[in-house]
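Ticket opened by: R.M.
Priority: normal
Category: complex prediction / small molecule

The reporter submitted a protein together with magnesium ion and asked that the result be attached to this ticket for the collaborator who will pick it up next week. Submitted input follows.
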Amino acid sequence: MKTRARRSLHFVPGGNEKMMAKAITLPADALILDLEDAVPPGLKAGTRPIVRQWLGDLDFGGRERWVRMNPIATGLGRADLEDTIAARPDGYVIPKPRHATDVREVAQLLDALEPRHGIPSGTTRLVVIATETPEGLLNIHEIATATPRTVAISWGIEDLGAAMGLPRTRDADGRYLDIPRYARVMCAIAAAAAGVEAIDTVYTDFADLEGLRRECEDGVAMGFSGKISIHPNQIPVINAAFTPSAAELEEARELVRLFEQHMQRGIYAFTYRGQMVDAPHLARARKVITRAGG
Ligand code: COA
Ligand code: MG
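Result attached by the on-call engineer:
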């Protein structure tokens, strides 16, 4: 079960001992140990036991432990699961799904593997990177709802851009062009429709922390609950942006108190700081309190 917020989900290339040693000292909420695109094709098989050993031996200090597997359709994904499940990761990050069947296939493999390793059924979670293929982006709703194991969906533009032959994904001011913007919007909406978290994608220009901060704020405004990081310096920026400020939290608590008082008189719509508030404002205030950790 989820025990803490997922604001920063930090990538570590599988097999990179130096980065892994550093990663367990960083303030990320979750670590994603990569077996996919950050691992050269020839090293995949040799990297699986290293990642299993990291999961088994290292003290993650309460950080969630995720493994990004290879796409199930490549034939590599199955061995990724079989060779790492014994170390009981919190779950797997699924790249490049095309339709719900790609996600269900992973869920069914886990159904078979969990009992063999004494893992309670259904407890291995999934985060699905739902927009990395054009087909997957069109099928995002069925992908997001394919299995109850899924706790979050994320999106990606590098692979989608490659598949579509997009020469660039941002305009001269660094703003996303239409295709990535559509993928990002659909990720946020599909997550909300499926009742799972939306996790914003990587910001690859890791030296540009101001650009990252702006993109995080935009992500908060779109309903994302966290963002993937690739470099240590990105983590504090992401954590700060996805943690409600003290003022926001105080306002949310005040609003909930006022709703409780008004409800005793049978009132659900009233004036707050000159504005009308009703049911959705209460729902939003409760979300802010949840995001703040209680
Ligand atoms: N996790 C842990 N430590 C990391 C790290 C990461 N993801 N990325 C960099 N570091 C470490 C470096 O080893 C270096 O450590 P040191 O100060 O002890 O020498 C320090 O942080 C500063 O790194 P820096 O020199 O600024 O960057 P770099 O050139 O070493 O690495 C990247 C840049 C992008 C190659 C690297 O950040 C990286 O590989 N990120 C993850 C990529 C990934 O997983 N991609 C797949 C998902 S999209
Ligand atoms: Mg990729």
